Amino acid sequence: MKNLIIIGAGGFGLELYEIAKDSKGYNSEFTIKGFIDDNITEISASKHMPPVLSTISDYTVETNDVFVCSLGDVKAKKKISQFILNRGGCFINLIHNSSIVYSNLDKNVGIIVGPNVTIGSNCKIGNHTLLQTGVILGHDSCIGDWTRLDSYVVIVGGVIIKDSVSVHTSAVINNNVVLENEACVGALSFVVRNVMQNTTVYGNPAKKL
Fold first, then answer.
1. Contact partners, residue 174, CB within 8 Å, separation at least 6
2. CATH code assigned at 143
3. Which residues of 38-55 are buried (b: 16+ CB within 10 A; e: fewer)?
4. Are 105 and 200 in a shared domain?
5. What is the torsional sign of CA 37, 38, 42, 43?
């Protein structure tokens, strides 16, 4: 049995704790050990929550430890997750039981699939990617590493989203669009054209800010 540690004990960390309890493998492949957070008093007063075990920098990875990261900022998530990886930590996938997954995610690690997500056929999802509640990922789409898709984002078929991309709440990415590395899409946007690297777009149709 693995011992799951959640990196970050803030708002989404607490939500991730609830997601983990309703995910595939809970109490059969892993249990929840607690949180690590640089603010060690973050949830110390919260009832019915596992403890904050340590700061991130001081935590010593133990046998059977596995990790997920709740940080929303993709750059901070990559930096801190890489710190844990360099210390010998291993990341697992969390896939909520209510989600529908028609693609194989087993070859990658650190993927978080929230409630009521639908992943279509022949999709490829990179390491450490977050799909929040209600995301729809169309067939033959490809999502890179360290990317974040917020709640109710719709990715139409054949979309390519590269590394460290953020797509915010209820945005729609039209079919065959490419989002380059570190692109950002604002909430409620409809993206019909490719988005260049390190570019933020917003609106309907989405335009560069």
1. 156, 159, 190, 191, 192
2. 2.160.10.10
3. eebebbeeeeebbebbbe
4. yes
5. positive
Residues 71 and 115 in one domain: no
Q: Does residue 204 sit in the same domain as residue 131?
A: yes
> If you count them, how many residues does the chain have?
209
Our measurement of the distance from residue 181's CA atom to the centroid of its chain's CA atoms, rounded to an integer in Å, reads: 16
Considering the domain architecture, whether residues 130 and 199 belong to the same structural domain is answered as yes
Whether residues 61 and 139 share a domain: the answer is no
Q: Give residue 61's domain range.
A: 2-92
Residues 65 and 121 in one domain: no
The CA–CA distances, whole Å, from 189 to 47, 116, 148 equal: 38, 21, 15
Nearest to 189 by CA among 169, 206, 176, 175: 206
State phi, psi for 137 to the nearest 5 degrees.
-115, 110
Number of domains in the chain: 2
Is this prediction's pTM over 0.85? yes
pLDDT in tens, the chain (209 residues): 999 999 999 889 999 999 999 999 999 999 999 999 987 665 554 557 888 999 999 999 999 999 999 999 999 999 999 999 999 999 999 999 999 999 998 889 999 999 999 999 999 999 999 999 999 999 999 999 999 999 999 999 999 999 999 999 999 999 999 999 999 999 999 999 999 999 999 999 999 98
User: Where is the domain boundary, 59, 75, 92?
Assistant: 92
CB-based contacts of 1, cutoff 8 Å, min separation 6: 29, 30, 31, 64
